[in-house]
Amino acid sequence: MENNYTAPGPIFEPGSGWGGRIKKWSKKYILGWDCSLCRATRFVLIFGIIFLILAKPEINNQEQVEVAKNTVTETVQPGDGQTHLTRRLLAKFLGQNKEILLTGGQKVFIENALSEKVPKAVLIVGQNVFLDLKEIKSAIEEAKLLSTSQLQRWEEYAERVKNK
Prior knowledge:
Helices cover 57% and strands 6% of the residues. The protein is mainly alpha-helical. It has two domains: 39 residues, no CATH class; 97 residues, no CATH class.
């Protein structure tokens, strides 16, 4: 007895398959002019791109200028910690406001108070650190209100600091 049984395999129909279907769909809906929604979307994108290229909208720099006026900025240098940064920020502020006179102890007190305001995140060399002028001024006012015994203690620490 002969075995003439053959297992039915896949039957391939002649046609375009998935590649042809996707190509047909993209021509009709993406590239074609048949779809009014696609046409509208295309026009919006084209006019938006043309507007951005030709109009070149200016970024509002006024807010950045206001922030710069209300803050003191210092750049992180190698080996800097929070106290080093606050020391330089305070020195920069006092350099701009020469009418404010402080003792070494008051400066160390202010540095200590402001070092808590510097972000605790990892400091990266070249990063800009900002301190608000209100925070600096309030720390200066607190330093001026120190009692003589408190000021005397801070003066002991100030003697150890290189740059008062």
